[in-house]
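--- STAGE predict ---
source: upstream dedup step, 1 unique chain passed
mode: sequence only
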Amino acid sequence: MEIYGRHHASRLMLGTALYPSPAIMAEAVRISGAELVTVSLRRESAGAKAGQGFWDLIRDLGVQVLPNTAGCHTVKDAVTTAQMGREIFDTTLVKLEVIGEADTLQPDLFGLVEAARILVAEGFEVLPYTTEDLVAAERLVEAGCRVLMPWGAPIGSARGLNNRYGLRSLRAHFPEVTLIVDAGLGVPSHAAEAMELGFDGVLLNTAIAKAGDPVAMARAFALAVAAGRLGFEAGALEPRDMAAPSTPVLGKALLA
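--- STAGE serialize ---
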């Protein structure tokens, strides 16, 4: 999986919130093989260095940090939070969220595009949390985003891929853009399905962190992502309406 010129062996990305304990979070990240994890800036403070213990734990995992503007509802808040992330974590990568609706946590696509333009101009490498809307995707790419992160379903809903047609269309329209399904996946089969559609990766948090056994679930998702990608690369059969015999009938003897 390529993200702004960086190549990652794992196509699974993890969030770091909601786990029962920091130790369980750390073990889940290790067992998943994820090389990139998101960190909400709410965990850190640029001035007081609050949350330093958490940051030290992430550093010890040897993974790349992706600061996240989670919880931002305005362009100004998102841009300011991204700037904090660059200062604290010494990275130009940012997962950009501008939330527009409180119940579904649906992105504000207008604000998202505006914030992306500002941040790209400042040298950020932006991974925008968006929907499967093709027009918004085009605007984000025009703004300089080389990675898009469309949702599968509302954050934490565990509903899987709500709009398979939209996601498939997005993949077809942007074959050269890195596409990562973010939000709404609940079980490993959801992740496998996203990969079978040709997506480059998935980002998970709630489905693993809130599982009965987060470590086991992290391994299950890692296997599902790998299997789904392999299935896509192998070339899956297209669905059809009529039966197709798996045993050839030509050349078979006929009994009178």
